[in-house]
Design a protein that fits this description.
Length: 169
């Protein structure tokens, strides 16, 4: 029995080694996604020193630019979620307005307008606002895509011109 534990064959040490290896793989996967050392430590329940040790053992580093890209992607995802919630609130405002229009007495009407007011305020808070940096990045992306499209069309036109210039036998 002692021999099995020392060799790591069967027994509790094998199970413990499997758990450690599983956590190490999770840490490596999260590093690959661009998460930072502190965030990985919180998500996996291991210390930051352990995260650093696992990264070093696997030849990985915490590249700040990679972490920033991942952070921007997560913020973008959160903004999309927030926009979806804002749209749902806008739908609720429309339903509350219909309810107010159909109210048969003052109490129902007042209740509906209170709901409209609350939902409208929540919508204003939830609707993501584009910053100037976001607008600039969107414009750069659009212009880059436009340039790629123009280059592609140019290449196709040149290819057609070349075909037309070559005499057909």
């Amino acid at each position: 029995m002692a021999d099995e534990l020392d060799n790591g064959v069967g027994g509790e040490s094998e199970v413990a080694a499997g758990l450690v290896q599983g956590r190490a793989w999770e840490v490596v996967r999260l590093i690959g996604q661009g998460l930072g050392r502190n965030e990985i430590a919180k998500l996996t329940g291991v210390s930051t020193a352990t995260v650093s040790r696992i990264a070093k053992r696997n030849g990985l580093t915490f590249d700040r630019t990679q972490t920033e890209k991942a952070l921007k992607a997560r913020i973008s995802d959160l903004n999309l979620r927030q926009a979806g919630l804002a749209e749902a609130l806008a739908d609720r405002v429309a339903v509350a307005i219909a309810f107010a229009d159909a109210a048969t007495d003052y109490r129902e009407w007042a209740y509906a307008w209170k709901a409209i007011n609350d939902a409208t305020q929540a919508y204003r808070r939830m609707k993501p606002e584009l910053t100037q940096d976001d607008a600039i990045e969107d414009a750069k992306s659009f212009l880059g895509d436009l340039m790629d499209g123009i280059k592609l069309v140019n290449a196709e036109l040149k290819a057609r011109e070349m075909q037309e210039e070559t005499p057909n036998d």
